[in-house]
Amino acid sequence: FSILSTEQKHYLFYPTLQTMGKVQSENPPSKVISPQPGMCVKTSSVSDKKKVFLSICQSQAVPPPPHLSQEALVDLLESEDPTSYRVPMSLGEPHTEVDNSSQGCTVYDVVINDEFFQKCQKDTLFQQFLIAVSLEGLENKYSLELSRDIKVLKNRKFMGSIAEQNIRTKSKPIIQEIDSNMCGPLLTYASAAHCSFLPEFSLLVEPPSGNAEHLIAEILLPGVISARSLVLDLGEDRLVLVAQPSLFHLDIFFPLLFNQENSVAQFNTNTQTLTVTMPVVFS
């Protein structure tokens, strides 16, 4: 395994991974939303210079990103890894429309939280940031290359029509309890663990070279004796773990997208370690 990111702890890794079955239903919870108009952004595809429009819409159904002040946003943009701050958004399928010149164009509907949209409308820096992450999100999802020479259309809130979108609601994977006799250890701490509201964890990718097939989160939870006290939520690139009552809380984003339905969580009661194995989604 190779390390994607980790706290400054000392670990010993063992390259063993047990085969784990599905624990999610085939049909994850979802709901249909009707996005409201927001703003329209004009750009073009780099390869063929054809017109592309972004209808950036808003909905209460999309969760807001973590609070971020303008000062914090400036620091983020100047940091080495501005992608560490994620904006939840729903990216719709491309659809063909006709622009004001009666020419065909491609339109993508991007849906974000309505309160965050209003914040972006009041602050130019946040608006520019929103447009940038929307372009990047579409490029990653649809293997595009879009021009950064953009124009926000003042008198148009969307292009063509806004389609309903089907978004996933939160899904909670079942956490299986195991003991050390069922599988070999994946992680051993060389330093003594200590209780903290933020648990010690490591993120691994398997295999260590070539295309990643699985993301593996190893989370040490000293003091937790049963999986029944754990609440685990998975998004397409996010893991949120709460050990009740208010013992630990972990909220992390991953550099890769993964398949929520086929993700598996196991809690080893002997080592008090939660292992979450997440199949990587290839774009």
From TrEMBL:
Domain PIH1D1/2/3 CS-like positions: 213-281
PIH1 N-terminal domain: residues covered: 24-173
Pfam family, one: PIH1
Cellular compartments per GO CC: cytoplasm; R2TP complex; ribonucleoprotein complex
UniProt-listed InterPro entries: PIH1/Kintoun_subfamily (IPR050734), PIH1_N (IPR012981), PIH1D1/2/3_CS-like (IPR041442)
GO biological-process terms attached to the record: box C/D snoRNP assembly; rRNA processing
Role this protein plays: Involved in the assembly of C/D box small nucleolar ribonucleoprotein (snoRNP) particles. Recruits the SWI/SNF complex to the core promoter of rRNA genes and enhances pre-rRNA transcription. Mediates interaction of TELO2 with the R2TP complex which is necessary for the stability of MTOR and SMG1. Positively regulates the assembly and activity of the mTORC1 complex.
Annotated family: Belongs to the PIH1 family.
PANTHER family named among the record's database cross-references: PIH1 DOMAIN-CONTAINING PROTEIN 1
Name of the protein described by the UniProt record: PIH1 domain-containing protein 1
Lineage of the species this protein comes from: Eukaryota, Metazoa, Chordata, Craniata, Vertebrata
